């Protein structure tokens, strides 16, 4: 990954998130300036909720979130340029019939001049000028995921959040998408339950039932050991989870 020397400051101060009386995140505080951040945890540990709060898609029930001093839930227009998020299922993200319309949409939201020309330039930059008028429904899942990635990177966000975007893709497709990601020179926040996705990341956050269980550069080993230990039990039977 390129290093432009520009770092982005992510702060969560005592963040809680409660839905229907149930605590999904509890007292999460982090102060991050690493370039590649991994968020790891079991299913249902609160990773997607953390990602959506960081992206400003939802406001936390309590506490404060800032990216370089800006509250992404409060200042939605600024958030468009601050942070982009790529989800697992591109079909939940894509809203337009053709590739060019999809890539131009975010640019239009940002208020840039001539969003169609900018979108076409992005397609060319990715070697996909020939996708311009392609119908999104005719593309493979991997190709749709690349349309989502191009749409997000067109807006040049300081932070790119990946919420398990490679789940369900075959190995060659994952490798190809990962190569496109290598050109991104901002801060990557990658959410996954699989430690293999996050090997070599600068900083890890480990969430367990909505609580920050650990963080730092060497959390993956502890996480893997704990997952193996939990795998030997039978807590999948427990309906209270
Ligand atoms: N809008 C919502 N309404 C009700 N419950 C929710 C909502 N969003 C999340 N939850 C619950 O909060 C918990 C954490 O969910 P979240 O999706 O953040 O976890 P996760 O770690 O990303 O899980 P997974 O790895 O399975 O995607 C889960 O038990 C989930 O059912």
Automatic annotation (TrEMBL):
Domain ABC transporter span(s) in chain numbering: 10-234
Naturally occurring in which organism (per UniProt): Aliiroseovarius sediminilitoris
Residue ranges that the Swiss-Prot or TrEMBL entry lists as coiled coil: none
Record protein name field: Biotin transport system ATP-binding protein
Alphabetical list of Pfam families matching this protein: ABC_tran
Molecular function as annotated in GO: ATP binding; ATP hydrolysis activity; ATPase-coupled transmembrane transporter activity
Example of a GO cellular component annotation carried by this entry: ATP-binding cassette (ABC) transporter complex
Protein family (similarity comment): Belongs to the ABC transporter superfamily.
InterPro entries linked to this entry: AAA+_ATPase (IPR003593), ABC_transporter-like_ATP-bd (IPR003439), ABC_transpr_CbiO/EcfA_su (IPR015856), ECF_ABC_transporter_ATP-bd (IPR050095), P-loop_NTPase (IPR027417)
Phylogenetic lineage: Bacteria, Pseudomonadati, Pseudomonadota, Alphaproteobacteria, Rhodobacterales
Keywords: ATP-binding, Nucleotide-binding, Transport
């Amino acid at each position: 990954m390129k290093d432009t020397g520009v770092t982005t400051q992510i702060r969560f101060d005592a963040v809680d998130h409660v839905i229907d009386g149930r605590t999904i995140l509890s007292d999460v505080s982090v102060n991050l300036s690493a370039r590649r951040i991994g968020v790891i945890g079991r299913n249902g540990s609160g990773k997607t909720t953390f990602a959506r709060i960081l992206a400003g898609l939802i406001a936390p029930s309590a506490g404060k979130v800032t990216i370089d001093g800006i509250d992404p839930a409060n200042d939605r227009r600024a958030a468009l340029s601050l942070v982009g998020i790529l989800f697992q299922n591109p079909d939940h993200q894509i809203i337009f019939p053709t590739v060019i319309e999809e890539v131009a949409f975010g640019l239009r939201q940002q208020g840039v001049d001539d969003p169609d020309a900018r979108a076409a330039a992005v397609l060319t930059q990715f070697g996909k000028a020939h996708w311009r008028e392609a119908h999104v429904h005719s593309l493979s899942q991997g190709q749709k995921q690349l349309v989502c990635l191009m749409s997000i990177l067109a807006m040049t966000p300081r932070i790119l959040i990946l919420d398990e975007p490679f789940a369900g893709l075959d190995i060659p497709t994952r490798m190809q998408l990962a190569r496109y990601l290598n050109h991104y020179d901002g801060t990557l926040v990658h959410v996954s339950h699989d430690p293999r996705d996050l090997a070599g990341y600068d900083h890890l956050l480990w969430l367990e039932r909505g609580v920050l269980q650990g963080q730092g550069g060497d959390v993956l080993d502890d996480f893997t050991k704990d997952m193996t230990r939990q795998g030997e039990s039978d807590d999948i039977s427990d309906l209270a989870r």
